[in-house]
Every structure is written in C-alpha cells, then in structure tokens.
Amino acid sequence: MRTTSQLRKIWAPACERTLRVVTLHSGAKLSVATEVVEAFQALDGVMQASGYRPRPADTGAFNCRQITGGSAFSLHAYGIAADINWNSNPYRRDNRLVTDMPPDMVAAIKAIRTGNGAPVFRWGGDYRSVKDAMHFEVVASRTEIASGIDWATVALVPPDPTKPDSWPVLANPSNGPSVEELQRRLTAAGFVIEVDGEFGLLTERATADYQLSRGLDVDGIVGLQSWTALLTGQPAVDPDASPVKLGTRSPDSHPSTRPSLQRGDTGLDVVDLQRRLIALGFAPGEDDGVFGPLTLAAVERYQVSRSLELDGVVGLQTWTALMLAS
Ligand SMILES: [Zn+2]
After folding, report:
1. CATH classification at residue 52
2. How far apart are CA 77 and CA 149, in angstroms?
3. DSSP letter string over 27-91?
4. Mean pLDDT (whole number) for 283-297
5. pTM of model > 0.90
6. Which segments within the chain are labelled E, that is strand?
7. Is residue 214 part of a domain?
8. Burial of 274: CB neighbours in 10 Å, binned 0-12, 13-18, 19+
9. Which of helix, strand or coil describes residue 307?
10. Do residue 16 and residue 118 come from a single domain?
C-alpha cells in the first residue's frame, strides 16, 4: 500500500487540483479532484447500500492545509481525501478507535478496485499510531484511477424500483450502473440518448427536458423527485405537452435568476439560450450547450437587432429581451 508521501508525489502539487463537487445520496457534498470523482461515487454507493448516511453538516473533503503539527500537506490538499461524519468518528491521538461506521461497510469500501485491479481507498481507522475514523483517502495512482472503477467490486444493493429513495443523486459528471439505468429510463420515456453509463452534457440536457415535460423542477439533477417520476411514471404526461419545444430552468423563471453567459461557457443555460435564439431565427448553430463562435455571432446579431448594448455577453438586459420575446 502506498505511503502518504508517495501519494503526495503522485498527486502533486498541493492546493491546485481542479475540483468537482460530488453530491452524496444524503445530499452531503464533497469537493474532490476531478480524477477521483467516480471513486467517491463508488464509496457513496457502498454507504447508501449499508444504510449509512453522511451528514451534510460534518462531512467534507478538499482543504488546502498542512497536517497537524507538520509542514507537509494533508492529502485533503490534493483533493483525494474525505472526512465523513466527523462528530461520530473523531480523530484520536490516543489510538483508540471510536466510530459508528459498520465494519462490513468499511470492508466493502476497502474492497473497491480500479479497472486494472488496484485498491482505491485506505481508511483512517486503520492507521497504526493514531485513529482517524472519519477519513478515507485514495491510494491509487493516477494511472490506476484512469482505468476507471470496476463497478463489479462495489457492493451496491440493487436499487429498488419501488423505492425511489434507494437511488443515488446523479448529476453531471457521474458514471456507473445507476447512470445506465437512468439513461435507459430516459430513452424509454422518449428522450433518446446513448446508454453508456456516462452522465455528461447530453444526459444532463435529456434530464432537463424530461423534467420540463413532467412539470418537475428543471435543474438537470436526478434526485428523489426525478427518480420518483422516472420509476413510477408519475405524473403522467399530457400528450400535448410533449415533446418539449423549449427548455427553460423553470416555467416561471425570471431573467434576474439567469447567469451571465459568454463565449466559452457551457451547460444547460447555454442550451436554453441557443434554443431561444433558434426560435427567434438567429441561427446559433446546434443547441449543444457550448457557447462557441456561432453562438457568439448569433448573440451579437440579436443584440444589434434589439438595439441592446453590443458586447456578445448575455447579461440581464439580453436575457430580459430574450425571455420577453419567447
Ligand atoms: Zn481527513
């Protein structure tokens, strides 16, 4: 098993990782390095299968700090460690283990392997001279992590179609078997996407379209509300309301709630912008959620046509005009 100083070298430099937020099944959030997102999703899958709930108030991850009493950085500074439920899993200098984590769950987390068979996590409750039961850290190398997670090694309880709350929260980016199931259900509901287990922009768009078609909150995130609809078919679709013509975050959203958009931005708001421009005849290219040169040119043509300030940036003034127009 790699030592902490080997892991520091592998994941250097400290405090400079590109971070992504992983939303756990309980709603708690972890900011971790982009490369290890899937690993922490697997860890959360095991916690969910064990009925163990990470509390949002005492669970967290990235922290640019040095280890207590030393000058080296903690693995939290590399985005490859997380602390779960620290109030009931305290750090103990006296080397006594105090934890509310079920031993089977901890064993199942330690059994997670990468695609090429390497162990993924070490538990702070196993440290020899101190005990840090809240703490899990990635012990895989970059190459090992790049081979993906072997989901066959992740002890998931098959989510129960009759229990929407047994399904994990999914958002861009996520991957794994529950993403495949989501994609199958979106496709069955008429929002055809590739079933590849990768929750990227296309799945996010299909999710948002599905949410809009069912009158759900439109956020592109598959939480309890969307799982309930997908699994039960409720609420039923009004045949006149589908397929969706125009995506918006929420039917009554106000221009002031929209983010300022400019070249280089991506995401659902860009899809919405592009669809509005298409509907108004300003040809921004495809509604692919990428604010590139064609979208920029269309925004500029739109601003000129409406005598708005010509800056190519979709701020409050341009959003207001677009939302009144459509
Ligand atoms: Zn920790």
Report:
1. 3.30.1380
2. 23
3. S-EEEEEGGGHHHHHHHHHHHHHTT----GGG-B-----BPTTSSSBPGGGGT-EEE--TTTS-E
4. 91
5. no
6. 19-23, 29-33, 81-83, 91-92, 121-123, 131-132, 135-138, 174-175, 198-199
7. yes
8. buried
9. coil
10. yes
Report the separation in Å between the CA atom of 191 and the middle of ligand 1, taken as the mean of its atom positions: 41
| Residue range of the domain that includes 53 | 4-153
Same domain, 29 and 94: yes
Q: What are phi and psi of 76, to 5 degrees?
A: -60, -30
pLDDT, one tens digit per residue, over 250-286 is: 444 677 778 899 999 888 888 889 989 998 999 898 8
Residue 295 belongs to a domain with what CATH number? 1.10.101.10
Tokens of 239: 């045949």
Q: How far is the CA of 136 from the centre of ligand 1 (A)?
A: 7
Is residue 247, in this structure, part of any structural domain at all? no
Q: Which pair of structure tokens corresponds to residue 67? A: 């280890």
Q: How far is the CA of 261 from the centre of ligand 1 (A)?
A: 37
